[in-house]
Design a protein that fits this description.
homodimer, about 270 residues, alpha+beta, Arc Repressor Mutant, subunit A, 2 domains, 10-stranded mixed sheet, globular, DNA-binding
Chain lengths: ~270, ~270
DNA sequence: CTAATAGTGTCTATTAGACAGTATGTT
DNA sequence: AACATACTGTCTAATAGACACTATTAG
């Protein structure tokens, strides 16, 4: 079959020639939580936390999953996570970045579904305590060795974990693909999305300014350092840290109050 | 409607509840080309080159595009680019990495099509001269300023260029989205895929070993340095370069022959 | 001999790591 | 006073940038 021009071709084109998968988007929403200090002198502990939603429908009924939904045919791909954040979790105008597209054949028991996943960073303090009936923040911690990661998720009421195996890609010495080894509570392949997001964040924190999307407008350098430490998953030395962020922040006239120790100046992100 | 269990739910599930987009994969195949030296003393110039295919069907008939094709319903997402590389360009067992998923509503005039794009790195010397009737290698060069990039593509017979505008994402000081400003010869939004790939390569070359996927087994450090320079788009100083790659390569007993200057030892990638 | 690249020594500048010290709030 | 953190000085180690020098081949 041949056509005179593109217009004629399009008029005869049958879009059903190839089967089509469903496409969803899933969003890993990451923030920083404060844990109450054990003692009046101590400052608050920080931890990384993510927002999960309890499914009240099949498939994976009653399990936890990332906020997500189907892509609409009339919206740009990046607008899908924006819409879902706005409608499902009431989050607007936040940092959003495409993470990876997951396309395992059997990742959804209903049918073939691809997930274009995104990572979103928010400052929890700007949000209402209760975001959604079914949504809950889970603190994230993990233990990692050369070929496994065990990730622990915990909220006040419940906690669970999953484990991922890291498998070196052929042709590389530094790229891994992941495989779920154990997973009790999460729907779909969401453990993979969560871990990909944690790794992305860990990598990008040192060469970008994304942290400040999770910080309040005013913060102390001690707090900021704790956030870096939680994301980089290691302790940092004070002088080194201060040198590194020196030109990303500016000192304000305000000071911390009520700390059981020497109060810090409040700082602000300097673009 | 409520179901007793997941099995029952699945038995009644209607996968046509949501419209589905078509999903393709497009592959940016990157390699290194040698240009003949202008003078017997000089060593060969290196340039980055990509493989483009001339479309002989609508849409975008007679324009150039990246090798690509539709995702099959029974194959893993990463297997689609592998299959297409094998069948369309006869490339097997090469470095492949997911780049980005493009999902503009009108990026394909036929219907809604998402493209999960991949970048592939190959050593041209391992390949036959003619890969496919419609495929051709184009050397890539570009000129970049703070908010525009002009990319020049050239083969022996023809050359063309496209221009992209870099637009800072809200909430960031370091992430851009791209918009095509001019494009004479490339189909779809492929200029965006090409530029994303170039940037990815530029970033990853310094903290991974991916270059060696584009290198022959034996090479001189001068050649390797030229490859770094072409990808990083800047000159490097010899001693600094040699320090950096010192523990990624191992010297062999072989030496370069026929160079119009002091011959170099041949090196090899050391894992 | 000359042009062109190979390969190294070394000095300097910059950045990162480590530790120790002083400062200052709350109870 | 004592604890906990804030904040800084400084020494050292490691890394990056710059330049200059010697070496070696084809023609």
């Amino acid at each position: 079959m041949s056509y005179k021009n593109e217009e004629e071709f399009l008029a005869h084109y049958n879009p059903n020639e190839f089967d089509r998968p469903s496409v969803t988007t899933d969003i890993l929403i990451v923030s920083i939580s404060d844990e109450a200090p054990t003692n009046y002198r101590k400052s608050k502990k920080k931890s990384m936390s993510i927002l999960l939603v309890k499914r009240d429908d099949y498939p994976f009924k009653d399990m936890w999953c990332l906020p997500g939904g189907f892509l609409r045919m009339d919206e740009e791909l990046e607008d899908a996570p924006k819409r879902i954040l706005a409608t499902e979790t009431n989050l607007r105008d936040i940092y959003l970045e495409q993470l990876y597209t997951f396309g395992g054949v059997h990742r959804d028991p209903r049918m073939r579904v691809l997930s274009a996943s995104y990572i979103a960073l928010v400052d929890k303090n700007k949000l209402p305590e209760k975001i959604h009936e079914n949504a809950k923040w889970f603190d994230v911690d993990y233990v990692e060795d050369h070929d496994h990661v065990k990730v622990y998720l915990s909220s006040e009421e419940e906690n669970f974990s999953f484990e991922i195996k890291k498998i070196l890609h052929e042709k590389t010495t530094d790229r891994y693909r992941f495989e779920i080894v154990s997973n009790a509570a999460l729907a779909f392949d969401h453990p993979l999305i969560i871990w990909s997001g944690i790794e992305r964040l860990k990598n990008k924190i040192s060469y970008t300014d994304i942290v400040f999307n999770m910080m309040p407008e005013y913060f102390t350098l001690g707090e900021l350092q704790k956030v870096y430490e939680v994301i980089l998953h290691k302790k940092l030395l004070d002088p080194a840290f201060r040198r590194i962020i020196a030109d990303k922040v500016e000192k304000t006239e305000f000071m911390e109050t009520g700390a059981g120790h020497r109060p810090s100046y409040m700082y602000r992100y300097k673009k």
